[in-house]
Amino acid sequence: MAMTHSLGDTWFSNIRGDVLAGTVVALALIPEAIAFSIIAGVDPKVGLYASFCIAVVSAFAGGRPGMISAATGAMALLMVTLVKEHGLQYLMAATVLTGVIQIFAGLFKLGALMRFVSRSVVTGFVNALAILIFMAQLPELIDVTWHVYAMTAGGLGIIYLFPLVNKTLPSPLICIVVLTGISLYLGLDIRTVGDMGELPDTLPVFLIPDIPLNMETLAIIFPVSVTMAAVGLLESMMTATIVDDLTDTESNKNRECAGQGLSNISAGFLGGMAGCAMIGQSVINVKSGGRTRLSTLVAGVFLLILVVFLDKWVSMIPMAALVAVMIMVSIGTFSWESLVNLSKHPTSSSVVMVATVITTVFTHNLALGVGVGVVLSALFYANKVGRIFYVTVDDGDDSNHRIYRVVGQVFYTSATQFAESFDFKEAVSKVTIDLDRAHFWDLTAIDALDKVIIKLRREGTDVEVVGLNEASSTLVDKFAVHDKSDAVDKMMGGH
């Protein structure tokens, strides 16, 4: 009964809403999949096949019902160099390897690592992605006729003004239809999708990448695959979190890792490129009424039907229309609120966000940008916690007795301050170190405690340690040397 209930909840509890939402998403996916293909430097059919395949497989295997996964801008940007230098076959192999890495990430439950990514890093990631998507459109706007600028501006006008008239149909689709109609009617000599490569006219077929299976090939694709796997999982986890908040439901992050992996393996063997969850499309799906896995399946299947049977029309779409759509995606993705919050939020949070953006934009590596952000967040946090630390000194039951009360977290940033809080030259017969309100976290802290106790004993002082909590006591018992005479001699031998 539980399985039936689960199947109904995750697939068929919202049929009408999911079918309509999936249809809207499919329509909106076409221009984005084509645009991302162009960013990556491959034929439009590569992105379209990938979007179909990833959406369908993740509908069954993903961990977040109602989330849309397809070809994405973040992944496309990582492929550019590989495609330019080695070609499509290597991209397909890299896509398969990306999927394998992501499945292992799911098996090792790496989805839980998302808790180490701060909100500032997420904001920086999203902003950097928006900037990179915008920059990717610039080649289409350089050294072109005024018609292109007029069409792009007109497209943006339609995208932002049409929802005021009708919110049922997706405005990016209306933009594409209207601009295509204008271009054909006026016979404008501007670049179209057809100029970018051949659109698919058949269903995707299984094929093994035509590359040599050796270490040289692995050396070429492995760095790209690792980066794509990391970025894909990062964006998917963040998107899942956003959809969780929007729907007030939980998702299985580790299953999502493995599901994304299976999707990418399938895409690689069907002539597609690597992809991941899409923040924009997932939000469109939820806002359009999509809730279950059915909406993701409908989006993927309907996308393929549209592309295969309407390919002649799709090839006539002017590039200016796609540029307008991608500028809209860029503007919509960017967190404009973060600019206002720069002065309101703590300086450390703002520095983390800006550093993530700058690193990502200048290296074109989203994983590196996030890595820098996470490291800076950790450093700022460690510094902040390390400063919430102090030691008070009280007299004991007589003048020859001192009680040092330690308050706060003792680890590598506060260990030096801890050691410097003791007066080793004061001639007292007994010192009590009260650790009731302290916690020892690492070996650096234990080492500092050792040195304090040993130095005090060397001055002839009787040292008593009280109030150690269970976790700290375990560390002290295991790693401390002040209670092990041989170790003490060895430690002090170097001084």
Description:
The protein is an alpha/beta fold and 495 residues long. Helix content is 66%, strand content 8%. The chain has a 4-stranded mixed β-sheet. Helix 19 links the parallel strand 4 and strand 5.
Features:
alpha/beta, Transcription Regulator spoIIAA, 6 strands, four-stranded mixed β-sheet, 495 residues
Which helices and strands occur, and which strands form pairs?
Layout: H1 2-12, H2 15-40, H3 44-61, E1 69-71, H4 73-86, H5 88-107, H6 119-137, H7 146-165, H8 171-186, H9 193-196, H10 215-247, H11 253-269, E2 275-277, H12 279-287, H13 293-309, H14 311-314, H15 319-333, H16 337-341, H17 347-363, H18 366-387, E3 389-395, E4 401-410, H19 415-420, E5 430-440, H20 443-458, E6 462-466, H21 470-479, H22 485-493
Parallel strand pairs: 4-5, 5-6
Antiparallel strand pairs: 1-2, 3-4
Task: Describe this structure in a few short sentences.
Helix content is 66%, strand content 8%.
* Large-scale geometry: elongated
Span of the ends, CA to CA:
71 Å
Strand order of the largest sheet: 3-4-5-6
Task: Give a count of the beta strands, DSSP E runs of length 2 or more.
Answer: 6
Residue stretches low in confidence (pLDDT < 50, at least 5 long) are 1-5
- Work out the helix count: 22
Structural class: alpha/beta
**Helices and strands, in N-to-C order?**
HHHEHHHHHHHHEHHHHHHHEEHEHEHH
User: What is the total domain count?
Assistant: 2
